[in-house]
């Protein structure tokens, strides 16, 4: 056989495109990296742990959680919402036990995701979650104001707030404190005013710009302020030992684990719902997202790093920067890793008052002032739950405050679910007619009995229960006892009509 094989002009097979949106995702990943960098460092410093541990959590959030299914565009890392709880845990139990707490949190999240419990976190009262974030914001602001002034903050939330007047008085007489406060205040001013600058300027994230300007101003004006201590990424890793694992036998540690699970899971899944409203791409699979968060926290716990949640600030920046797939959040983890590996010495130039200013601004944004006003006009019960939850977190502690909020939400729901209407018809002659409609529960029992016992004892009564949707055992027993007492006076037996 001679001649050459003749090939078709067009090869019929086309290879599948790999990463078709790489250009958009690459650009978005750089934006998210620049947003995440100062927040990772700031959250770590505010939590009382080495700055590198915040970067480590951001890296895990990108390279581990970012690769897993769930929510394709939301970004995970250390969050300001857990700062107060982490600080209290480190102060109470030590840095070694923090890794065990985060590890246990991750394992529980994995189990809850496997059991398909993720969707049920959406049933948590929004007022409780917003109250939780508001309480965290208040404690965070109060605590970081001390760092802005270069002072040591009191331990309790109430102590932080009560000590603020003394902080102002002490700072006024100290040159060092005034320099520190001025730098922190300038950082906050940059963050507040940044959104009013031209669009081209705002391509640089506000937090990065504020911290960068403060870092340049510190040596330029020879400001006597503290800067970040650098230990190195590998030196900061602390694998949990057997002694630290034994800390799980403590009731306090277990309570902290439960608080971590509740807050981290709720914040992540509420963030996922918010991110879904920002784009038209695939919707969040809540159970898978909970497992992704659990996997990330498990790895963070093994490395002794900070806990992670999905962070709405980074996630919104990711969407607004044009991200199309999960590649953007994975790449942001790569950039954080390269920074921590190649440029760790840069951290030593960052002034602590600037990071404190970033967190004061972040704490302020956690307080839903407009949301409280709207709730007060439309749902005063929900507004009350929000405020009580926030105040309880400040006055008592994070865990107890959240429990108080949840208890109030359950009590409010139970009270509303037991709506009951009693109509009395007395025509002057013949039996008195009493008609009950709605839900008769023990919560409404005093009202029912007061009304029935006020009926004339010498008149027959017809009790119509056909309008009740629910009659619990306590109410049924109480109505039967009342009927017996009413009939014992010599009148006709109470006639009861039911469905």
TrEMBL record:
Keywords: Membrane, Transmembrane, Transmembrane helix. InterPro entries: SLC26A/SulP_dom, SLC26A/SulP_fam. It is found in: Membrane. The chain crosses the membrane at residues 26-46, 53-73, 93-112, 124-146, 175-194, 206-225, 245-264, 334-364, 384-411. Residues 22-389 form the SLC26A/SulP transporter domain. One of its GO terms (cellular component) is membrane. The keyword Chaperone does not apply. Its main location: membrane. It is a multi-pass membrane protein. GO terms for biological process: transmembrane transport. Pfam families: Sulfate_transp (PF00916). This is Sulfate transporter.
């Amino acid at each position: 056989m001679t001649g050459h094989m003749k090939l078709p002009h067009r090869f019929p097979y086309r290879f599948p495109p790999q990463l078709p949106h790489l250009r958009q995702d690459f650009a978005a990943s750089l934006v998210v990296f620049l947003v995440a960098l100062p927040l990772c460092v700031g959250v770590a410093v505010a939590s009382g742990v080495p700055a590198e541990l915040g970067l480590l959590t951001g890296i895990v959030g990108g390279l581990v959680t970012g690769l897993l299914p769930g929510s394709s565009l939301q970004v995970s890392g250390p969050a300001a919402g857990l700062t107060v709880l982490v600080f209290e845990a480190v102060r109470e139990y030590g840095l070694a036990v923090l890794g065990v707490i985060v590890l246990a949190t991750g394992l529980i999240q994995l189990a809850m995701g496997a059991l398909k419990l993720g969707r049920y976190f959406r049933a948590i009262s929004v007022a409780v979650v917003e109250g939780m974030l508001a309480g965290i914001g208040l404690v965070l602001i109060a605590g970081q104001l001390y760092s802005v002034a270069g002072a040591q903050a009191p331990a309790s939330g109430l102590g932080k707030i009560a000590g603020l007047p003394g902080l102002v008085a002490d700072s006024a007489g100290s040159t060092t404190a005034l320099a520190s406060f001025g730098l922190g205040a300038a950082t906050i001013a940059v963050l507040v005013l940044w959104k009013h600058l031209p669009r081209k300027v705002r391509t640089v994230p506000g937090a990065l710009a504020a911290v960068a300007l403060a870092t340049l101003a510190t040596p330029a004006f020879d400001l006597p302020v503290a800067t970040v201590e650098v230990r190195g990424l590998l030196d900061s890793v602390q694998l949990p030992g057997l002694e630290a694992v034994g800390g799980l036998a403590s009731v306090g540690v277990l309570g902290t684990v439960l608080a971590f699970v509740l807050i981290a899971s709720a914040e992540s899944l509420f963030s996922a719902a918010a991110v879904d409203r920002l784009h038209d791409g695939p919707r969040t699979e809540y159970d898978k997202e909970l497992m992704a968060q659990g996997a990330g926290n498990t790895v963070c716990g093994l490395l002794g790093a900070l806990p992670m949640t999905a962070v709405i600030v980074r996630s919104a920046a990711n969407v607004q920067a044009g991200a199309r797939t999960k590649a953007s959040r994975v790449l942001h983890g790569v950039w954080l890793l390269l920074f921590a590996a190649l440029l760790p010495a840069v951290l030593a130039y960052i002034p602590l008052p600037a990071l404190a200013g970033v967190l004061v601004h972040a704490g302020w944004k956690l307080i839903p002032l407009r949301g409280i006003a709207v709730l007060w006009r439309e749902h005063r019960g929900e507004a009350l739950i929000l405020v009580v939850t926030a105040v309880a977190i400040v006055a008592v502690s994070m865990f107890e405050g959240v429990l108080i909020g949840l208890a109030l939400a359950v009590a409010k729901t139970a009270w509303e679910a037991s709506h009951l209407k009693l109509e009395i018809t007395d025509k002057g002659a013949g039996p008195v007619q009493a008609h009950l409609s709605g839900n008769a529960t023990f919560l409404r029992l005093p009202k029912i009995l007061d009304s029935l016992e006020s009926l004339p004892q010498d008149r027959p009564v017809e009790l119509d229960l056909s309008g009740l949707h629910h009659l619990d055992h306590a109410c049924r027993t109480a109505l039967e006892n009342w009927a017996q007492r009413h009939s014992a006076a010599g009148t006709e037996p109470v006639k009861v009509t039911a469905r």
